[in-house]
């Protein structure tokens, strides 16, 4: 497929016209009495009309038919998608999942929507506060089918297989090691090219922002220019085969039939768009003297809560970097956190866990549940010669860190059949090294 075009920037006021229809974007106003090319004007609001300018989000779409031309939304089966956080009793133990399994038979065709499996979450779309973590596993493209999420925003983290994401705003090709954000209400459809798997962080009630940089200054971490926004590209499948528009609403799936493609936007402008970002562009900041800095230095995007400094969820990565800290235990420290930590691995080996934290798998360390390096890692790092070394070469791990205390679903605990029951054994070989007679080296005789 010819390479796709993008516009660059984070949350800019973008404007795009399909080149087949020059002048399709109305000039100087949003609602002309008659729009160019006989298009319909439709606003998509991503924030309350009255939000302050700094957080006000909306886009204007100029389309062949307005979205309202659909038949009634009818409830459909929702597979392993769930917003029921009371399916099983709470379990605070450290949890790890071996790679989430692909369908046993490649004959069984599963598309992106059918392949959504909810792993854990808290809160809901009704009260507009909370998160859900889903794993998508699919092997076939969505055909004459689109999806939109009425409940919140999706941050997609592909782990295996490219996603060709068609949206109302245009197309994005998203490869593993890139992320893609599809915000609340945006119609999209996913084309895949074989076995496909990835992670989704869903946030209810907030949008993702770039973190503040404080004393870091004006540049660094994820730079705004590296975010890619699609360009207008319409499909005129008017009166084509029946199209199913699927909505996730209050955690349930609904489908409406219509006889035209929802990807019928000829021109659009605004600051509420889907976007993608390549994780290799992250400008890594790290300690260069001593001690292990908190992982918040690796925050790519944050969805803020109303409490200052507290995120509904942060998307944090552990990218390849140099480790140079002197007289320091360099891997992650032992830790108990007032936040929940879900981790996933896109590729490579994670430094704090030698075994069984594998690409396509995951781990959950719930609020106040202790965790940290396994026994092997502790021994190696305590004895290592502290020369500069490359950490995480060829690796990309990430964390969804949330202030919500999450429940795991029945799918996560049972149905997925990949919970690693032996996980907590990795800390059992840790022995006390306490020596009451210990003296600092310069006092030893
Ligand atoms: O638990 C983890 O592996 C994530 C993590 C990484 C780190 O470098 C410091 C703290 C932390 O929770
Ligand atoms: Fe942690």
TrEMBL record:
Highest rank taxon of the organism: Eukaryota
MF annotations from Gene Ontology: homogentisate 1,2-dioxygenase activity; metal ion binding
An individual GO BP term: L-phenylalanine catabolic process
Known EC number: 1.13.11.5
Positions annotated to bind homogentisate: 350, 371
Gene Ontology CC entries for this record: cytoplasm
Cofactor: Fe cation
Keywords from the UniProt entry: Dioxygenase, Iron, Metal-binding, Oxidoreductase, Phenylalanine catabolism, Tyrosine catabolism
Pathway: Amino-acid degradation; L-phenylalanine degradation; acetoacetate and fumarate from L-phenylalanine: step 4/6
NCBIfam families, per database record: hmgA
Protein name as it appears in the record: Homogentisate 1,2-dioxygenase
Lineage of origin: Eukaryota, Metazoa, Chordata, Craniata, Vertebrata
Gene symbol of the encoding locus: hgd
């Amino acid at each position: 497929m010819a390479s796709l075009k993008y516009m660059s920037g984070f949350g800019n006021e973008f404007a795009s016209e399909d080149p087949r229809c020059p002048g399709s974007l109305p000039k100087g106003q949003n609602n002309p009495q008659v729009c160019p090319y006989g298009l319909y004007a439709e606003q998509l609001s991503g924030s309350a009309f009255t939000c302050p300018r700094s957080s006000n989000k909306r886009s204007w779409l100029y389309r062949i038919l307005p979205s309202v031309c659909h038949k009634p939304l009818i409830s459909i089966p929702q597979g392993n998608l769930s917003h029921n956080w009371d399916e099983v009793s709470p379990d605070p133990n450290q949890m790890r999942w071996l790679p989430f399994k692909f369908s046993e038979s490649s004959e069984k065709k599963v598309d992106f929507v059918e392949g959504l499996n909810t792993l854990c979450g808290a809160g809901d779309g009704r009260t507009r506060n909370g998160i859900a973590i889903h794993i998508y596993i699919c092997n076939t493209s969505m055909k004459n089918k689109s999806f939109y999420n009425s409940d919140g925003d999706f941050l997609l983290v592909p782990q295996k297989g490219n996603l060709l994401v068609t949206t109302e705003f245009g197309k994005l090709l998203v490869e593993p090691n890139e992320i893609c954000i599809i915000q609340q209400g945006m119609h999209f459809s996913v084309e895949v090219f074989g076995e496909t798997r990835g992670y989704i962080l869903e946030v209810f009630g907030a949008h993702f922002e770039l973190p503040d940089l404080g004393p870091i200054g004006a540049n660094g971490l994820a730079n705004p220019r590296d975010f890619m926004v699609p360009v207008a590209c319409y499909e005129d499948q008017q009166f084509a085969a029946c199209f199913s528009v699927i909505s996730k609403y209050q955690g349930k799936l609904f489908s409406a039939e219509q006889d035209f493609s929802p990807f019928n936007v000829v021109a659009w402008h605004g600051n509420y768009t889907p976007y993608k970002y390549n994780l290799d562009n992250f400008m890594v900041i790290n300690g260069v003297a001593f001690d292990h800095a908190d992982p918040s230095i690796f925050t790519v995007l944050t969805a803020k809560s109303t409490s200052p400094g507290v995120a509904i969820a942060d998307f944090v990565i552990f990218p390849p970097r140099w480790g140079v800290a002197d007289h320091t235990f360099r891997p992650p420290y032992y830790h108990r956190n007032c936040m929940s930590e879900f981790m996933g691995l896109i590729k490579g080996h994670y430094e704090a866990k030698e075994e069984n934290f594998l690409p396509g798998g995951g781990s959950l360390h719930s609020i106040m549940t202790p965790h940290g390096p396994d026994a092997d890692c502790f021994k190696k790092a305590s004895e290592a010669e502290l020369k500069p070394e490359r950490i995480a070469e060829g690796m990309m791990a990430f964390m969804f860190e949330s202030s919500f205390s999450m429940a795991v679903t029945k799918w996560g605990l049972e149905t997925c059949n990949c919970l690693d029951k032996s996980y907590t054994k990795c800390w059992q070989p840790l022995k006390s090294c306490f020596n009451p007679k210990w003296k600092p080296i310069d006092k030893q005789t």
